[in-house]
Amino acid sequence: MFEQLRFLIEILPELLIGFPNNRPGGLLLTILLSAASLLVGTGLGAILGAAHHSRFRVIRFAASLWVQVIRGIPLLVQLVVVHTTLGAGRIPGIPFQTSALQSAFVTLVLYASAYQGDVIRAGISSVPQSQIDDARMLGATSFGLVRTLLWPTSFRVMRPALITQAITVFKDSSVVVVLGVADLTTNARIALGGDVGNAPFWVTTYLLVGALYFVVAWTAGRLVRRYEALDRNNFGTVALELPLESSSSTI
Amino acid sequence: MLDFLTPDLRESLLEGLAITIGLVIVTSLTSLALGFWAGIARSSDRRVRRKVAGIYIEIFRNVPALILVIFFAFAIPNIVPINPRRTIFFNNPVVDLLGDLTGVPIPYYLFAAALALTLNTGAHLAEIFRSGFNSVPVSRVDAARSLGASQIDALRAVVAPIGIRIAFPAVSNRLIHNLKNTSLASFVAVPELFQVIQGEITRTFQATSLLLLAAVMYLVLSTVMTAGLKLIERRLGRVHGETEPLRV
After folding, report:
1. A73 and B58: CB-CB below 8 Å?
2. Residue ranges of domains in chain B, CATH in brackets
3. Which residues in chain A are closer than 8 Å to B218, comparing Cβ atoms?
4. By mean pLDDT, which of A239-248, B25-34, B150-159 is the weakest?
5. Which domain holds residue A28?
6. In total, how many domains does chain A have?
7. Does the pLDDT of residue A241 top 50, yes or no?
8. B215 touching chain A per CB within 8 A
9. What is the pTM of this model?
10. Which phi and psi angles does A183 have, rounded to 5°?
11. Band of the pLDDT at A238, cuts 50, 70, 90?
């Protein structure tokens, strides 16, 4: 019991902020990595979501192909594919090689873009066509339409689903352990190492790792519910109905 | 383009594919059963039942599937001292039978991966089912009850059939996610599709072709499964009339 506690306290800094020579690492890196890739990925997702509603069939097709392909392949496979191509400089026309962390970032951006793009697509669809027609009739420009009608209406509707997907990306980022990028899961693995003497600590260490992921994901999940409750009480609008499961999940 | 596919390679890929498909079928069924009952318990009138289901759902939804897989496969056996460990986890008739059936060298790891995926997907499905049951309009439940249906009968004849139909698209989505999550079993030495691919890469050095092949195979698997689930969804039919939106 005492030994267990001592071991956990010993490795706690490594799990939280990383090994002294490799910081940021651990949970901090997991959060930074997923936050950064969500930021870029959601931006890319906004373009994808808009592209879904494009006038041109080619653009619509390309956007839905992007989403379907990325959503059809495990993140684990995507990570390894990106790192063995981009990470080894095997993509013609791209002269540089990415580090493991950069490959993980690129993959998570692609992954997040597909999921967030689908939420944004559904969010835009949730704005009634009649309102768009009304705004057009009142002389709204395309930019004005997006700024004053589409963006505010759809964002409030999309927000819970966007956060839910963000939490999914955060949890799924544990898979980057396959590239060994010093995130929480990787550092737990390194801390336990190949030492047979550490065998008794496996259970408690992974319980702690699970608890750390749980705290972040669960807290963020509560946030979604608060937003939803606020929205229902103050604005009379309803959260997006099943944004991720609608038409586009078939290929 | 596919000239790297020697007969040997093809055979081992098919074996990996078989394990992946088996894992998908088994974990889909077990997690559907678990998720359905946990979803019912979550919306039960009994406080204790509701709380227990709630704790299960919250824990297993918020911990990454990978952590669960590693925990059950690699960490759990370490609780037991080395001598009984062999017999409990790695060397007994039950485990041997599983090994004979699947051809997996360390059957306990396959079992652990299936258990972890079931608990994870089951928790997500429970929340989806709960939400589906809650979306059934109260008026319909009241109508059934006032016609003399018991609570169980109302659940069986009204809430479950309507709730399942409402929840079905979200359930499909989660099952597809589960299909992709089976690749996590490669972390714990289960020779499923991705583990086989990785093994072949170290043997043949055909990294790019093999990985693209893996990506395409998973894409085909999830496309086929999506289409199959859509077909079932259409068979089940639509829910007529007003329903509450699904909140997962």
Report:
1. no
2. 7-236 (1.10.3720.10)
3. 72-74, 77
4. A239-248
5. 2-249
6. 1
7. no
8. yes
9. 0.89
10. -80, -175
11. very low
What does DSSP assign to residue A174? G
> Number of C-alpha atoms within 13 angstroms, CB side, residue A248?
31
Question: How does pLDDT run across A200-223, given as a tens digit for each residue?
Answer: 899 999 999 999 999 999 999 988
Tokens coding A198 = 């550490």
**pLDDT at position A139:** 84
Within 75-94 of B, beta carbons closer than 8 Å to A belong to 75-76, 78-79
Substitution target from A78, A208, A214, A226 for chain B, most B beta carbons within 10 A: A214
**Cβ under 8 Å to B: A residues 152-211:** 164, 171-172, 174-175, 177-178, 185, 199-200, 202-203, 205-207, 209-210
Q: Between B59, B183, B247, which is nearest A74 by CB?
A: B183
Contact B222 A71 (CB under 8 A): yes
| ipTM value for the complex | 0.91
DSSP A183: B
Q: Which residues, 6 or more positions from A111, have their beta carbon under 8 angstroms from its beta carbon?
A: A37, A41, A70, A75, A78, A169, A172
CATH number at residue A12: 1.10.3720.10
> How large is the average pLDDT for residues B109-113?
95
A107-136 tens-digit pLDDT: 999 999 999 999 999 998 888 888 888 888
